[in-house]
Every structure is written in structure tokens, then in C-alpha cells.
Amino acid sequence: MSRLAIQKTYKLYIGGKFPRSESGRFYAINDSKGNLIANMCLASRKDFRNAVVIARNAQSSWANSSALNKGQILYRIAEMLEGRKEQFIAELIAQGETAENAKNEVLLAIDRLVYFAGWSDKYQQFFSCINPVSSAHFNFSVLEPVGVVAVIAPEKQSLLGLISVIAPAIVGGNTVIVLASESKPLSAISFAEVLNSSDVPGGVVNILTGKKEELVNQFASHMDLNSIIYCGTDEQLILSISELASNNVKRTTFYKKNDWSSDSCESPYFIEKTQEVKTTWHPTEI
Amino acid sequence: MIPNLDNLPVYDTAGVNERIARFCSRSIKSNSKLEGLRLALSMVDLTTLEGKDTTGKVKQICYKAMHPHDSLKNIPTVAAVCVYPAQVANAVNALKGSGIQVASVATAFPSGQSSLEVKLLDTKFAVDQGANEIDMVISRGQFLAGNYQYVFDEIVAVKKVCGQAHLKVILETGELDTLDNVRKASELAIYAGADFIKTSTGKIQPAATMQVTYVMLDAIKDYYIKTGKMIGMKPAGGISTSKIALQYLVMLNEVLGEKWMNKNYFRFGASSLVNDILMQLVKAETGNYQSSNYFSKD
Q1: What kind of fold does domain A26-283 have according to CATH?
Q2: pLDDT tens digits for range A143-168
Q3: pTM of the predicted model, to two decimals?
Q4: By CA distance, what is A53's nearest residue in B?
Q5: What is the set of active-site residues of B?
Q6: Which residue of A77, B145, B214, B251 has the lowest C-beta tally within 10 Å?
Q7: Hey, are the CB atoms on B291 and A247 less than 8 Å from each other?
Q8: Domain made up of B31-294: CATH architecture
Q9: Which residue of A has its CA nearest to B287?
Q10: pLDDT digits 0-9 by tens, B84-131
Q11: Can you state the angle between helices A67-83 and A186-196, rounded to 10 degrees?
Q12: Number of continuous H segments (helices) and E segments (strands) in chain A
């Protein structure tokens, strides 16, 4: 007797859980021949609002966990992804990648997680400094996470690009709310399953699928977000994000690159993008 | 005289839950939502009941009560500030001329485990200090032991000491175990002379739930049908978001009706609710979701 096909329901990932959109809406993702691959949740601004509350609550305990612990968890994500790489390759192929590109992308994504895991207990030394001042003070600068970061993930390289942007943000103690690639969202939600089984505390990474048109301005204007990262080249959108983000002086980062596989995507400066420098003046004797 | 507690309605939890699910599914949007939020704000008893309360802290929340968020136009002040008896004089002083009431907990709050004499003195002290409203606790131990007469007489005695001050009777529903007990305690309080009945002290979990509030509203309704007298209701503890507050208002409207939809007959005992309402109101005005960083904590 033939088995009934069991197909995965792709849902959102908020606070360590997989809810459907509160709006009940969805949109279809088709392959190049027009066949339905999956229906994705079409997240609403209320889903986004709920995700921000959860990410905010999760932020301080994540930031306060030790650098060693955060590094281990990132490495754990890489381990879990390694174990499921065939599934991710197949998913990328279904969304239109060639077999070779898909394989390269998944392997590189795993390596990138390992790369940023390694920086966990090192970036602080790299960027912190003691500053010479001409008064009786010991003056030093250290990095602190900005807080809650909104990420609009790249359209292409929907897995590698997503990981390349969120890994440096979370390794630095931020929590993130991600809007996945609109046209290729499957890998992001499958990646959420990996996060969910990797000891990443609920709320540290939250992933929404939906329309940029509806959500980007909400991301940019929300007063409780501290930073926004936009990956893409839409100049009009960049302008509007910049304007809205200025309301509460969000730190904005725009990645206009198309290729996330190059070596230039591995640098501690990606971590620094979502950090604030805190400088302390400590009185001393001369 | 103590009411007959033998023929009270019996509450089926599944039925109550179903009724409440219907209240929670009402869609309140745009203008009605804003009206609802302003109404909820006007009904808040802004509360600080901590051992660490100081004159400064009480002054601060009194300021918050009078000026919830100055950049917002057309918003009401809260209904009252609720403090311990020792802080009543401070609150009265700070709120002078604002029209905001001063409520004080009394009668060996929160446990109520003391002698009647001490409880009456506690109440008298709060009233003498200038409290307009007294939030007393019932003796749950005596209630659960079946000494209903004792509980009833105690409320009557406290009511007498209150004089002009309004009396809110706290049932502490989190310790009463069943909805039927909540109904019984509501009857005792109402017939003993309570102006308001109140769910909880906020010191016991669970505090206010929609289930117990529903049962208490039902008792108020039956009393109104029988006597024509209106008793107020105050859920307290755990109501921290605008969404939940609006659901309570829906329930109030559908169980008791419009006559109860004002601060004379309904209060929220809360503290963090205020900022959540303010954030919603600012969101409606600016279109941007808000951060608690931009709202005063007390």
C-alpha cells in the first residue's frame, strides 16, 4: 500500500515556537514550472509586534550569558545544520538553485557559523581599547550589544545570506527579528527548526515570512528596536528606512552586496555593526 | 443580616470558560478601541503596595497619576492611587486638588490574620489620615472553615468605621479554590455593605482572572435585580496589557451594562497597565509602535 505524502507546514518562528500568522494569511511559493512548493505564512504587523516584545524580553539574559556559552551555541547550530545538510540542499534546489550552487551555499553557511562561533570570546579584545587621556583617569572603551536588531534578509542566497547577517548579530549578544527572503523563504523556516534544536534560547532569533512592502516600514519605525539591517539594493527603500529609523536613532546598516560567498563576508566588523562603544572614565591617582 | 447562601447559583467552569471565550473574541478597533483605552485609563487604581515604599516613591506615583503622559492630549487621569495606610498622608498631600481619590488597604492586609480590634484600628488610622477609599481583606481562613457569620460581621464592623469612605472588599479569590466559593464570598461582602467587591490583593497567584471576575459581576447583577442597588467591581493583579483590559470592559458591558462603564463602578487595580495603555495611545497618534524607554516608570 502506498503511503500518503506528508508535507511540511511552514510556519513562523517566534519566541522558540512555531505559530501561524495571527492574520491567518498565507502566500504561495512556486517552482520555476509553476508548481506549488509550499504555502508560507504571510506575517502581519501584529506578528511582528509580538516578536519584538518577545525579542526584547529575551535580550538581557542572552547578552548576559557568557561568551563561551554563546560561542558553543553557535557551534551547536553548525553541528545541527551539518546533520541536516541534504535536506537544505534539496530545499534550495526546489527553489531554483543549481545542485552545485545549493551544495556550496549550505556548506559555506555551516562554515560561516563556525567562523562567527570562534569570534565569540575574541571580538571584545579586538575592538576594546585603553585610551590615553590627559587627566587623572583610567579611560577605556568596550563594546555592548545595541539590543534588539531587525534584519531584512537578502532575497538571493536565502540561507547563506540570512546566516551571514544574523550570526554576527547574535554572537554579540543581540536578539534579532528577521524578515526572510520573500521569494525564497523555505530555508529560513527550516533553519528555525535547526535553531530550535540547538539550545538557542527562545526569542533570541525570530523569523517572519511575508511581504517587504507591508513590513519593512514597520521594522524601521518601531521605537523599541535598536538597529536595522537591510540587505538589498532598493534605493527608495533605503531612503525610507533611513528616515523612519531616525525617529529613535536606530543604528542602520545597508548591505548592498549580491554575493555572500566571498571571503570578504568573514570579518569581525560584521559583529561590530550591531555593537555600541561604551567608554568609561575611571578616576585614578597620578 | 447574613444572606442565605444555600440557594446560590452553581458555576460550571466549562460553561464560564465558554462565555469568557466569547467576550475575548469581540473585535474592538480604531475609534472604539481608543475610547475603550481612555476609559480603562480613567478606571485605574494606580497601586504601590511594597514594604520598600517611601515618601518619594509615593510622591512619584501620585505625579504619574495626575500626569500620565503630558505629550498626549485628551487623556484622563487615573481614578485613584492605592497605598498602605502609612503612606496615605503623603498621597493625600501630593494629590491635593487633583480630584484623584486616595485608596488605602487596611485590616492587616494582605493576610488579614489579626484580631478584629487591630483591623478596626488599622482602618480608622487610614480614614483619619484622609483615605477616601478603604480596600479591606476578608478572613479567608474563617471563610474556608465555614464561619460565614464571622466574615460577615467583620465586614459590617469595618464598614461602620469607614464612615464616608468607600469600602472595597477584597475576596482574595486565589485562596478561595472554587467559583462557588467566590460567589458565596461576593454575597457576604455585598450584603454586609461593600461599595465595591475586589478580586485580589495582588500578593497571591492567581490574582484577577476573567473567570472569577465574571462570577463576581454575576453576583452584582443579581443583587441589582433584587434591590436596585449598584455595587462596584475591581479586578486587581495581573491585568497588565491593554488587550486584557479591553476584554474586561467587554465583559463588564455585556454582563452589567453601560451604567457600570465608569470609574464610579469599575476599577482596575494595576500599575504596569497604565504604561501599556499609554503606549497604545501614542501608537495610535504617531503610527509607530512604542518602546517603554520613552515612558516614565512611576
Answers
A1: Aldehyde Dehydrogenase; Chain A, domain 1 (3.40.605)
A2: 999 999 999 999 999 999 999 999 99
A3: 0.91
A4: B291
A5: 135, 198, 234
A6: B145
A7: no
A8: Alpha-Beta Barrel (3.20)
A9: A221
A10: 999 999 999 999 999 999 999 999 999 999 999 999 999 999 999 999
A11: 120
A12: 10, 10
